[in-house]
Design brief:
By secondary structure, the protein is of the alpha/beta class. It is built from ten helices and 14 strands.
Length: 336
């Protein structure tokens, strides 16, 4: 790693890996030097597509490549513990997609491994790195809407997804909660922290994954967060934060917003828009920039996406799954 360039390895070759790699290539201080897949054919095709020098047909080759400064893990979340752990064991820094792992115990293992080795580790919660989301949090923290009373957020896709799709496969951590619900839960906890009480209801598929889940998160101060996710209905992906003196609305795409509206009692609404170059199309770049900033600063965690916050979100996701009765192969009967 130099002041001019951070060298990236990409572990997996799916859609999110392609989107992130395309954004990395646009950054002058990032260089994608290697990619790995479970098959050499897939890795070579990805490398040729993006002009990447090295292609590995197994994860170990990438993990052991000492010319890589940081590995982006983009496998399905069912493989995050194995893939990220392999890289951390080999001394690599890691940016790992969300949901961070299948469950909180797996997440704790990765965090302990990174902290024990002094390696950088961050969940790829790009929403937390978005300038407009950061501005919203600043306003809330500064008391612009008073004491937060409630948070609402939803994320749903219309589908339909066939039983063979990964979102319906228990073996791949399928269901709406870990794939989509991690966003509204993370948004709520960005503003309110970890809840003290969790209630939830869901509609489950024949395979045993959640097609649709709603949860209420309760807090000691009396605040409530209402979160919803679905793979059977396209939602507005909106969010709202209500306080004692007003509210903030994100009308669409709360996890990569182009604007939000601040309503304060006795005042005209104020709209906050993304700056040129900071819009939804560049959301993954903000995440990459934060990783590279932290690496150059010698930090092992990002203050924007702290590992303790990631662990707290995983505990809440476990609690929700415990309430709705979703278990994945090999998990204990009780999660929380």
């Amino acid at each position: 790693m130099t002041a001019e360039r951070v060298r990236w390895g990409i572990l997996a070759t799916g859609g999110i890996a392609a989107a992130f790699t395309a954004d990395l290539i646009d950054l002058p201080d990032a260089e994608v030097v290697a990619v790995a897949s479970r098959t050499k054919t897939s890795a070579k095709a990805f490398a040729e597509r993006f002009g990447i020098a090295r292609a590995y047909g197994d994860w170990a080759g990438l993990a052991e490549d000492t010319d890589i400064d940081v590995v982006y893990v983009a496998t399905p979340h069912s493989a995050h513990r194995e893939a990220a752990g392999l890289c951390l064991e080999a001394g690599r820094n890691v940016l790992c997609e969300k949901a961070f792992t299948l469950n909180a115990p797996e997440a704790q293992e990765l965090v302990a491994l990174a902290r024990g080795r002094g390696s950088f580790l961050m969940e790829a919660m790009w929403m937390y790195c978005n300038p407009l989301v950061r501005r919203l949090k600043e306003l809330v923290d500064d008391g612009a809407i008073g004491e937060v009373r409630s948070v609402q957020a939803d994320f749903g896709l219309a589908g339909p997804f066939p039983p063979t799709h990964r979102l319906r496969d228990p073996g791949q951590g399928g269901g709406s909660l870990l794939d989509l619900g991690v966003y509204p839960v993370s948004f709520a906890q960005l503003l309110l922290g970890e809840p003290t009480d969790v209630t939830a209801r869901a509609v489950l598929s024949e395979e045993g994954v959640d097609l649709q889940t709603g949860a209420l998160l309760g807090y000691e101060g009396g605040a409530i967060a209402s979160v919803h996710c679905s793979i059977v209905g396209g939602t507005a992906t909106s969010a709202s934060v209500t306080g004692s003196l007003g509210r903030i609305d994100i009308p669409y795409g709360f996890f990569f917003p182009d604007r939000f509206v601040l309503h304060r009692d006795g005042r005209e609404p104020e709209e906050f828009a993304a700056a040129p170059g900071d819009g939804p199309r560049n959301s993954l770049k903000h995440e990459a920039r934060e990783v590279m900033r932290a690496l150059r600063a010698g930090e092992t965690e990002s203050p924007l996406v702290p590992l303790d916050g990631t662990l707290a979100v995983m505990r809440t996701l476990d609690a929700i799954r415990d309430r709705i009765g979703v278990r994945y192969p090999g998990e204990a009967a009780t999660l929380a």
